[in-house]
Design goal:
This protein has 11 helices and 9 strands. It is an alpha+beta fold and 254 residues long. It folds into 2 domains: 90 residues, Orthogonal Bundle (Arc Repressor Mutant, subunit A); 143 residues. The strands form 2 sheets. A 6-stranded mixed beta sheet has the order 4-5-6-7-8-9, sandwiched between helices.
Amino acid sequence: MKHKTKLPPITNKQKLILLILYKFRFLTILQLQKYFKHKDPHRIKAWLKDLKEKGYAYAITDSKNITKPYIYCLAAKSRYFLQEEGCNEDFLSRIYKEKKLTGTFINHCLFIVDIYLFFSSQQENNSKLNFCTKQDLMGFDYLPEDLDAYIEVDGKDRYFLELFDEYRQAPGEARFAVRKYIEYSEEGSWQANTENSAFPTLLFVVADERRRKHLYMYGKAKLAKTFQDIPLFLTTQDAIRFSKDKTNIWKEAV
């Protein structure tokens, strides 16, 4: 008979933090503070310190910059809890590698959290936001490759989100993504698997204004030549970082 691994006890809030780390992979204290809408970080710091000491979470530090905030990721013991939650086994088998991933990938994941927090701040009190990351979308083989998030608001407004930052700055990658979605729409995979639902709006977040303008012109030209109805909206990382209230930061490529 297989014995169940006995784990150090943690609270329900700490279990939720592990699930959030599974979803986004990397988080800072400030991001968790915003997620939980806490006015100060003391409780979150205490929860994370306890998770770290018990082997559920790992704090990535920068020895060359002691002022840089800790970045938290999952550690080995979280695997047993997440298995009980039905999380992806392939990912859980590699969980020990999380702390060793590249800085550009970690920053990419952290900015996806910022995008989630931006969307959350834009919602009305009674609206429902469903923000699915790559972790949530594992197994949905009909969805496009390289999708950073699938977003649904109130069960009707749907979006495909891709972030083109330092991690995805290879020449032509964003332009390829425009062509990829045109081909994906033409193939009909989305329609066939969603009872012919309207094609989601594309949201592309790019590193700076120069790239946004370039991709705007390219996307506008490419979409004008297709018979597919594919809305494409663009913004920059700084627009998300410094957004205030409910100001519209998106520009449609039309």
